[in-house]
Amino acid sequence: LSDRLTETFRNLRTKGKLTAADIDGTVREIRRALLDADVALPVVKDFTAKVRERALGDEVNKALNPAQQVVQIVNEELVAILGGEQRRLEFAKNPPTVIMLAGLQGSGKTTFAGKLAKQLQSEGHTPLLVAADLQRPNAVTQLTVVAEQAGATIYAPEPGNGVGDPVRVSRDGVEHARRQQHDIVIIDTAGRLGVDAELMKQAADIRAAVDPDEVLFVIDAMIGQDAVNTAKAFQDGVDFTGVVLSKLDGDARGGAALSVASVTGRPIMFASTGEGLDDLEPFHPDRMASRILDLGDILTLIEQAQSAFDEAEALKVAEKLATETFTLEDFLEQMQQLKKMGSMKKMLGMLPGMGQMKQQLEDFDEREIDRTEAIIRSMTPGERRNPKVLNGSRRLRIARGSGMTVTDVNQLVQRFEQAAKMMKTVARGGTPNIPGMGAM
Ligand code: GDP
Ligand code: MG
Question: Per the database record, which ranges form the SRP54-type proteins GTP-binding domain (predicted)?
């Protein structure tokens, strides 16, 4: 798939200024890539329109590297849709917190119920699993097994007790939790293979009866183009407060995530990534963005663009050194550039073949830069321009102001001096390098 997209970005990269035609070509390829990832067409249209508008605007025109800027816009917009409303479970002020699950049959509700129970249990909660799927004969048995594996308690109607009423079981389950002091109730409900009026009514009735704090809509990431219709049907029929994306361990590209998030505006809260009860993760919008657009190759291009950028910066710095004006301000600026790259670390972590850069980022500690920044911010402009004036009492003042120790301040000044020395070598024609960061 992304060969073409990669090619498109590569072509962009070799250009300086981008024309409207360049951008249209790129937007066309992004559109193709999204459709390949099974993102629903209306969502793709909205998305590409937004990217195109931003790409034609000033931020790209004025960017040092316009192509890189376009890639960043694409990534930002993806993350915005996927994670604009990212949030965690909300617990009720008066326990029990009631969490109801809804979704098609086979979407992964019962499995997720077990995973969530196990996770909550490990966090010190006392979840009660309520078996309100009385549709399939073995659904209660399945939840019983899952509960046992999760080490959680289950509330279920007596076996062989005729056809149960899921609304009543749900209500009784919550009542039982209150009496037995379970602080969380997870209600596992029935699903059908397709969207079905009777099923919706049942789910809506359960919702009305127990007034849950969270209704989580579980959807199979492999569902593809059906994602939009299914999600809309559940939103209209039951409504939900959050989304669980299941079977992300499969080879689905995750277009369903973008479709559901975009069409329903509800946050995706969990990623279910396997059949085991430990295969549960909070949802990461940035990872999903990479997965959807196959950003691996594109990030390589960013990396190339970035190194070109750094070279240009290094030249600028060399020039400053030649005129002896390299200051702590410049030093800080360089550090911050590194930090920008560091924030890609997470995304890179899941990408294959990022070899060298990944390793460099592994060695790189963002907090280091925060500390450096704190110290330099506590200096006066005069001190930043001329660190030679930093005597003992000034260093003590800076340490206090930045919440660091005098040793930290000393180390920073020392590193700056080393860096400045190194930069001098650069200025005399040595190999450009970024000071102060070892492997970087
Ligand atoms: P329900 O009908 O919505 O309750 O769905 P189930 O929880 O019974 O899951 C249906 C099938 O999907 C079962 O075979 C599960 O083992 C499987 N399953 C559920 N979640 C995941 C997941 O995240 N990854 C994988 N690979 N399989 C899953
Ligand atoms: Mg089930």
Answer: 267-280
